[in-house]
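Notes continue from the previous slide.

Worked example: a multi-chain complex. Inputs as given:
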Amino acid sequence: MITKMTVTNIHVIDQDSAYDFYVNKLGFRVVDDIPMGPGTWWLTVSPPDQHDLQLVLFPVTVSKMFPQKVVDTLTDLIKQGVFGCGVLTCHDVFATYEELKAKGVEFIKAPAKEFYGTEALFKDDSGNYFSLQPISNFDDENGI
Amino acid sequence: MHMIATAYHPKVYLYRRVVQAKLFIDSNYSEKIDLDGIAGEAYFSKFHFIRLFKSIYGKTPHHYLKHLRIAQAKVLLAQNLSITETCFAVGFESLSSFSTLFTTIVGQSPSAYSKRHQQTKQRISKNPHAYVPGCYAYQHGWFENSNFEEVGD
């Protein structure tokens, strides 16, 4: 029986820039930061209050599984904002929106009330986007 | 979905003041911070400021500052700064109050925490394969084109 998701990937275009975005702007905690040769790290981060999920900031660079053609296509799609990487939760979407905006995070949707609750959308430094929602959208009363 | 919503929170000016206060704490946690002064700068009564801060961040400003300082202390200790250097770098004025609070929040003393991290770093540098999933290591050519296996023996 599968019990949890523990590690998942976010494909990023530049690991240095992604480190700055996820750690210094979003406030994520670095779990692993292991150099693997020029310009590549095994780099994982976790949201501040969550200790059982690691996000691998996975570089889109030429490697055994990513030939140049794949790198070019994937980079293009990420930059176009095709990939939604999940929902991040907070106590208060409006305040978090103000804080992240003050830190230079680019929002593609300001906080608005939807039928499922309040939501905003922002992009990471590569172009991946996240939904930002209050944790109350996911409480038991909402059936999730 | 990719559109700018026109919704504008009626109390957005209040949020901005609290957010500015939080960002001030984030930038100045290593200094002596007067939380009452922050409430004053945000044009709030102290009580109103604390209540709104807690509703937004889930912690009172004082509680948030304490946890931020300890979180930063963990980062510095993991980088092998001494306990004394770490204590003052994150805004504590007394080593004993730092050690007591650190132990309460983290569950182990600063020295135990630092020692554990240095041991882990040594193990990683001796045998990084053990700390990087095989699929990722393979994808980046570690198994064929590196001397890590020899180092790990």
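Summary box: The radius of gyration of chain B is 22 Å. The interface with chain A takes residues 1-9, 11-12, 15-16, 18-20, 22-23, 55-58, 71, 124, 128, 131-133, 136-142, 146 of chain B (CB under 8 Å).
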